UniProtKB/TrEMBL annotation:
<keyword id="KW-1133">Transmembrane helix</keyword>
<feature type="transmembrane region" description="Helical">
    <location>
        <begin position="54"/>
        <end position="79"/>
    </location>
</feature>
<dbReference type="InterPro" id="IPR035952">
    <property type="entry name" value="Rhomboid-like_sf"/>
</dbReference>
<keyword id="KW-0472">Membrane</keyword>
<dbReference type="InterPro" id="IPR007599">
    <property type="entry name" value="DER1"/>
</dbReference>
<protein>
    <recommendedName>
        <fullName>Derlin</fullName>
    </recommendedName>
</protein>
<dbReference type="GO" id="GO:0005789">
    <property type="term" value="C:endoplasmic reticulum membrane"/>
</dbReference>
<feature type="region of interest" description="Disordered">
    <location>
        <begin position="228"/>
        <end position="249"/>
    </location>
</feature>
<comment type="similarity">
    <text>Belongs to the derlin family.</text>
</comment>
<dbReference type="GO" id="GO:0036503">
    <property type="term" value="P:ERAD pathway"/>
</dbReference>
<feature type="transmembrane region" description="Helical">
    <location>
        <begin position="153"/>
        <end position="183"/>
    </location>
</feature>
<keyword id="KW-0812">Transmembrane</keyword>
<dbReference type="Pfam" id="PF04511">
    <property type="entry name" value="DER1"/>
</dbReference>
<comment type="function">
    <text>May be involved in the degradation of misfolded endoplasmic reticulum (ER) luminal proteins.</text>
</comment>
<feature type="transmembrane region" description="Helical">
    <location>
        <begin position="99"/>
        <end position="132"/>
    </location>
</feature>
<keyword id="KW-0256">Endoplasmic reticulum</keyword>
Length: 249
């Protein structure tokens, strides 16, 4: 019974959020069980280009470190804000949400060629948080009961918290920068005079993730012959009136 309830709750999670967070958890468990090594997962442009280890382009976004506080902290924020984005501003637009993932991932990989970034999962989380915060500017936040602030300040609060944990701020800054680029070209630029939408979702993604609902077959009701409004056949009733009744009128 508990298993069925847990499975139902799991299937209620939006598809992109469910797939990404599940992949992150499975990757971390695989490392924890020594099935794979982090050295096989991190972003290394040399082995990607020369040895064609293309899976590193994906696994660099899936590993958040060994099981511990840092892993659970990142996964909570990833799951929470990824789901709120997919169920909020991207509701009914799963294909557009996938395009956001692809856009952010490609830009981060390009940055990783010039900045020494081994794992991009944390930067990806910050990007998601940044986009959500800019689309929910009036939401009041509470950070572990320590401070209250408006949603747009959340990425900066996380940046400060990351510094306290001793993490490199370059990862968070890359995520915030790419989140701002996406927010600008998707939410700001199209609203400017002469502006236009740059990111356009391919049709095959829309057909794959957002298929048009099938219209039910229309079955017309059978025509009711010789029936007048009200459902009473007055014509036939008049014909059936006895003659003596007509003489008494």
């Amino acid at each position: 019974m508990a298993y069925q309830t847990l499975l139902q709750e799991y299937m209620l999670v939006p598809p992109v959020t469910r797939a990404y967070t599940t992949a992150c958890v499975i990757t971390t468990l695989a490392v924890q069980l020594d099935l794979v090594s982090p050295f096989q997962l991190y972003f290394n442009p040399i082995v990607i280009l020369k040895k064609y280890q293309l899976w590193r382009l994906i696994t660099t976004f899936l590993f958040f470190g060994n099981l511990g506080f840092n892993f659970f902290f990142n996964m909570i924020f990833t799951y929470r804000y990824c789901r709120m984005l997919e169920e909020g501003s991207f509701r009914g637009r799963t294909a557009d949400f996938v395009v956001m993932f692809i856009f952010g991932g490609v830009l981060m990989i390009l940055c990783a060629f010039f900045v020494n970034l081994l794992f991009l999962g944390q930067a990806f989380t910050i990007m998601i948080v940044y986009i959500w915060s800019r689309r929910n500017i009036y939401v009041r936040m509470n950070f572990f009961g320590l401070m209250n602030f408006q949603a747009p300040y959340l990425p900066w609060v996380l940046l400060g918290f990351s510094v306290l944990l001793g993490n490199a701020i370059s990862v968070d800054l890359v995520g915030m920068a790419i989140g701002h680029i996406y927010f600008f070209i998707e939410d700001v630029l199209p609203r400017q005079r002469g502006g236009q939408k740059i990111l356009k979702t391919p049709m095959f993604l829309k057909k794959l993730f957002d298929p048009a609902p099938e219209e039910p077959d229309y079955v017309p009701l059978p025509e009711l012959a010789n029936v007048r409004p009200g459902g009473f056949d007055w014509r036939n009733q008049n014909q059936n009136i006895p003659e003596n009744d007509e003489g008494n009128r």
